[in-house]
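Protein Record: Sequence and Backbone Structure Tokens
======================================================
Tokens: labelled as protein backbone structure tokens, with as many entries as the chain has residues.
Task: work out the structure tokens from the sequence, keeping to the layout shown below.
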Amino acid sequence: MDPNSLAVMANRIRMKDLETVYRAGAGHIGGEMSAIDILTTLYFHVLRLDTKRPDDPDRDRFVLSKGHSAAALYVTLAERGFIEQAQLTTFLQPHSALNGHPNRVKVAGVETNTGPLGHGLPVAVGMAKAAQLGGADWRVYVLVGDGELQEGSNWEAAMAAAQFRLDNLTLIVDHNRLQQGARVEDTNQVAPIAQKFAAFGWATTEIDGHDIGAIISALEPTALIEGRPMCVVAHTHKGRGISFMEDRVEWHHKVPNEAQYEQARRELAEASK
């Protein structure tokens, strides 16, 4: 899909994510909105996948380390054809496969269970190392939140990835500068992120995480450097696309009331014109 088509799809996914969280009465809508442009570009332009063969050994792997943004992943998987659209209505319902954090045993297209922050990058490093050892040409992509980088396990994984020269690994940081209950800088500042990963031996780049063209360019094979894992710092806005949510810390896991829901729907509908 071209950038314009991807932007339309991203807005569609935002709308369905809003509906999914509102219907369930729970979720993490702010960080989902900040990540949707990235998820859309990955699933509809970058990742080598086969929806009819979700366990194809030659597929690319994607790990959503910020697993609390599961609703955005589920909506994206439904749009891509991994799960049925009707299944989205069961999000967070009793006995539903669509839990608050993704489960690879229950949901087609999910590569690994995530939720406890700081686990996704170490798992992705293991996947990339397995591909390297097996001489496979598939790639591993992992999306983390910036607040999540306060977990020390990420930096152990970063050292290992550089040591093993895992140039088949791409880390994308959803740098929206907000975490649960506070700004990242007021909790435990992780910036400057790109410089820190560069010091650990990674290739790095910084982009506008809502610019589809910039996301595509950062993830193109020509952007990679042989022998070095890639870190893409995507500058984003929590609650992107919905005026009263943008850059507001309380929308980490707040759920819109009816009036807010209708306003958000109107704003997203207007953006799609």
Observations:
- The chain has a mean pLDDT of 97.
- Residues 264 and 270 are 10 Å apart (CA to CA).
